[in-house]
Specification:
Two copies of one chain form a homodimer.
Chain A (H helix, E strand, L loop, with lengths): L3 E5 L2 E5 L25 H10 L21 E3 L5 E4 L2 H4 L8 H4 L5 H8 L12 H7 L11 E5 L2 H21 L5 H6 L12 E5 L8 H5 L5 H4 L9 E2 L12 H24 L4 E6 L2 E2 L5 E2 L2 H14 L2 E5 L25 E4 L6 E5 L19 H16 L2 H22 L4 E7 L2 E6 L2 H13 L2 E2 L1 E3 L3 E3 L8 H18 L1
Parallel strand pairs in A: 4-16, 6-7, 6-8, 8-11, 11-12
Antiparallel strand pairs in A: 1-2, 3-4, 5-13, 9-10, 12-13, 14-15, 15-18, 17-18
């Protein structure tokens, strides 16, 4: 840490003053430092500049990414924020990790960007090696194949397509026949089947039209957009601590699973079969709702029984934040899920799939870019660091302390804070209402802690895998200070 | 050109022997050079290596992107191919353009990759400047705002969402009401409206479920995938040369436009309004079908008359290949299209939109990444080169010679070649059947020319903007040689 400490009235701050020749920061400040309102005057001026040429209504602040480092985001006004939200949980190693920055000199990176391949037809000669070294090295147990895509949404879209193709191929006993190929051009049966995908209340799977049809977390995502008429089951809503509410929680599992099976049976009778069930290990955007290992095991059984593809959407949970590389590892399933979706911390989108889900005909799962090898170059490096430094195990340990700290907060404010929950650093708690939640987020950022909300009235923690005990100590200190102010 | 010329029996070849210290090629071979079958043994071995871990059925060959340069692709077996297909028309300046390669030392590039922003909420402090310098500098006349996305499909998905939001907002006279927000969560009206998008037979707009519903080029894209029931009109099918078939061609326009208007009226009566019409300037994947300026002018009028959003999908035509930066510039529309979609040669996906299409509420047009600023760094440089070197104008001129050369081919083989057509280097011709087309493509690649097919029996030219007269001369030489062999 190469920083200059100054004493200012009432508080010790660290001026962040360590940058490489390229202008990219090389170390973390020791402490947050907020000197303006957030957004500050520079962020506001930039928003005014951007507004006539690009939509801006969701912009919170502008960020100086060259100055940001590790767990600290530096905004356009120079405010240094301890960031436990990390670009919506998408940076595995925080900002400007020095070993990832070194990728700039890897010729594979620049060639992949300047001479970007149409990967489905003309991949790089080292693409098989890149996939093996990056994606296959962390493949969920039992899943040996992967398909890269551009983001979580395109991964989900193509996973659903794969499930439909699989369902129809099995039903026919082979590839499409002439009548399938002909009828699909007018979108008639049998070529355009009336299949559906089952998802859950509270789910978030992306924002394309089909992904919105399986997303049920917030009206703002869905309103005014036409949708596919696909079935929705309830997802468990547990009370915490779990051990105190066993009866309620088990009943939740029963009810939800009963609903899933009934919906599959009804749709089958109506000849609009459910081809796939898609589920998040933890409904994140929807409010950090967890399902029990038992719930997921039995959900998989229901899928197997009815020949339905079982898809686990690990876009937000994947890559280590829950204390295991994949959240579903903690369920001890008898056999792997049929497909596992990833993006965010995995830097590239894509999905792992079981051998029987492989699509054998060319150009069915296809598009121009099919992913981006430049992202694999960076992911390869990130995974190397994650493994070398034991960051998943560390996240598990720091996460236990985070959860304990939040439980203390709940004990101190039982009228305000409830349902403290989490695995790894993937923790959350509920406030009594949205207004209080938003006030608490606001009070935190004023003190230099950048934190995210989710669901109706929850706060979620999504730090990077480089979030250490010292960052946790600061996080809890600021959170308690903010709580004191708001409650 | 720093290459070593050798004399070998029967043919002069150039060994491509010019690479920078980083291992990235810095100059073009003077001539194609094919020494193995394509795919060659190395490509085949790589495919066998990749097959167990990643889907491979569409893979044609593996490419050595570090060795490729300009208009020449070098495959894993060392074959040097003159490439007029250019990664499905997606490389604006061919392979490893030296000025784009220099972007590797731009700190904005590496920071954007390693510390990738959630652009919708926390953009880079220089993002407004990046948008202005890259995307706004080439905005279609009359369109002053842009929204970045990741690819053509995500751009189209979000353009459709924007059209739906616009249509409903205008209908209501304001943002969603409580009943809209509530009903959309169960996908009931009025929150989930029964709106549709009109597209055309032969169209290609991407491969997500919604984009497939407006795509009607080939069964392989659509079969087994459930679809939205949206209306389809015919797109003109002209005969060439245009001046010889005026009556037929005008009748095509009439019939198609009549169908569009009728479909809009019928859907309105059925209370499932058409909110948007989406159309390609040239149906590319579908077989390089052109529409006349008059067709598009009148299509825009029909849209205006019925309050339907007019979307021009320039994913393949945009960025200069037709001899104008945007193909629709050649229509002389009275007012700009409501939205123009781009991707491929534009390096980033996205869409330009009219001011009244702006979505004012936050988180409606949103996702985690919302594009990728690293792509803007590279696009900025590519556009600088395109403007400085007058590459669009040059493409127009070289394109005229390409078209003349193809017309000569048609004149030489009137039984085999028909409907030679094109603007800029965006040229195509038809063969008598798919088999002959595929044989011709095969014969070309054997001689070192990498060319693409489209539609049922067409060949399309999609060279980069650095395709010069010398490359054209070689192209026509090889094409004529291949034709002699096949016909």
């Amino acid at each position: 840490m190469n920083s200059l400490r100054l004493l200012v009235p009432g508080r010790q701050i660290a001026l962040h003053n360590s940058r490489s020749l390229s202008g990219i920061a090389t170390s973390e400040p020791s402490h947050p430092n907020v000197s303006t309102a957030i957004p500050g005057p520079k962020s506001k001026a930039l928003k005014a500049k951007m507004d006539p040429i690009h939509q801006t209504p969701s912009v919170k602040m502008f960020v100086d990414y060259e100055k940001s480092f590790g767990n600290y985001l530096v905004d356009a006004d120079g405010n240094q924020l301890l960031d436990v939200y990390m670009q919506i949980s998408s940076l595995p190693l925080g900002y400007n990790h020095p070993e990832m920055v070194k990728c700039a000199s890897d010729p594979r990176l620049i060639t992949s960007i300047v001479s970007r391949p149409a990967l489905g037809s003309f991949p790089r000669h080292d693409f098989p090696a890149m996939i093996e070294k990056a994606l296959i090295s962390v493949a969920p147990k039992g899943l040996t194949s992967v398909q890269t895509m551009l983001c979580g949404t395109s991964a989900n879209e193509n996973a659903l397509k794969t499930a439909f193709i699989h369902y129809q191929t099995r039903k026919r006993g082979g590839p499409p026949r002439l009548q399938d190929l002909e009828s699909c051009m007018t979108q008639d049966q049998p070529g355009t089947p009336n299949l559906s995908v089952l998802s859950f209340n509270g789910a978030f799977h992306g924002r394309s039209l089909a992904c919105l049809s399986i997303t049920r977390s917030k009206p703002v995502h869905k309103v005014d957009i036409p949708a596919l008429d696909w079935p929705i089951a309830n997802f468990p809503r547990y009370m915490y601590p779990l051990e105190k509410h066993e009866t309620h929680n088990q009943k939740q599992d029963e009810q939800c699973l009963g609903q899933v099976e009934k919906l599959i049976e009804v749709r089958k009778k109506e000849q609009r079969d459910v081809a796939a069930v898609i589920v998040e290990p933890i409904q994140s955007e929807g409010g950090d709702h967890h399902g029990s290992p038992n719930f997921f095991k039995r959900l998989q059984s229901v899928c197997k029984k009815h020949g339905v593809v079982f898809i686990v959407d690990e876009v937000q949970t994947g890559g280590g934040p829950t204390g295991s590389f994949w959240a579903h590892e903690q369920w001890n399933l008898e056999s792997p899920p049929d497909m596992v979706i990833f993006s965010k911390k995995m830097i590239t989108g894509g999905y792992y799939f079981k051998e029987e889900l492989r699509v054998n005909e060319p150009y069915r799962i296809y598009n121009t870019w099919m992913g981006d090898p430049s992202k694999l170059v960076v992911l390869e490096k990130a995974l190397e660091v994650i493994k070398r430094d034991g960051l998943v195990e560390k996240t598990k340990n720091v996460g236990e302390n985070l959860l304990a700290g939040l439980q203390k907060l709940e004990a101190a404010y039982p009228q305000q804070v409830s349902n403290t929950r989490g695995v790894g650093t993937y923790c959350a708690f509920d406030l009594k209402d949205a207004k209080t939640r938003d006030q608490l987020i606001e009070a935190c950022i004023t003190e230099g802690l950048h934190i995210g909300g989710c669901g109706d009235a929850s706060i979620r923690f999504r730090p990077a895998l480089v979030f250490d005990q010292k960052h946790l100590d600061l996080t809890l200190e600021i959170l308690n200070k903010a709580a004191k102010k708001v409650f």
